[in-house]
Amino acid sequence: MHKVDLHPVHATIPATDRADHTPTAPVVTTVKPKLVVLRGSRIGVEYPLYEGKNVVGRFADKPVDIDLMSQESVEQIWCSRQHATLTFEKGNVVLEDLNSLNGTWLNGMRVHAGQPRPVKPGDVVQIGTIQMKLVMG
């Protein structure tokens, strides 16, 4: 007759993390769009786009998110105070003119007020004489 051991065997299972270790959140890659100035008084300047609506213009009586005042010469101002919007939602960027005097352009094509246009990485937005390329980083 075989003897059966009635005492359970306790095994230690190694943990992957220490008990007092707080697990780190997974790294989430976020898309951060920006406009990089190609033509203007300060070439290479970057303007980040934030989630939601970004107003482009010249800061005066109303605040703007992207102030282009330093990009134009004082003698020749083409940018309206509230010129256009760039809306960044769900990874997409959309450009819309705000009925500006001198117009908004996307890759050389006029963008009219009330007719928003999608902007893709590498596209060039022109406001007045200032040209900016959309870069996703």
Quick rundown:
With 137 residues, this protein is mostly beta strands. It has strands at 33-39, 46-48, 52-57, 66-67, 82-89, 92-97, 104-106, 109-111, 117-119, 124-127, 130-136.
What's the gyration radius in Å? 27 Å
Strand order of the largest sheet: 2-1-11-10-7-8
What is the molecular shape?
elongated
Helix and strand content put the structural class at mainly beta
How would you sum up this structure, described in words?
The chain has strands at residues 33-39, 46-48, 52-57, 66-67, 82-89, 92-97, 104-106, 109-111, 117-119, 124-127, 130-136. It has a six-stranded antiparallel β-sheet with strand order 2-1-11-10-7-8, with no helix packed on it. The protein has 137 residues and is an all-beta fold. The protein contains no helices and eleven strands. It is elongated, with a radius of gyration of 27 Å.
Descriptive labels:
137 residues, mainly beta, 6-stranded antiparallel beta sheet, elongated
How do the strands and helices of this protein lay out in sequence?
Layout: E1 33-39, E2 46-48, E3 52-57, E4 66-67, E5 82-89, E6 92-97, E7 104-106, E8 109-111, E9 117-119, E10 124-127, E11 130-136
Parallel strand pairs: 3-4
Antiparallel strand pairs: 1-2, 1-11, 3-5, 5-6, 6-9, 7-8, 7-10, 10-11
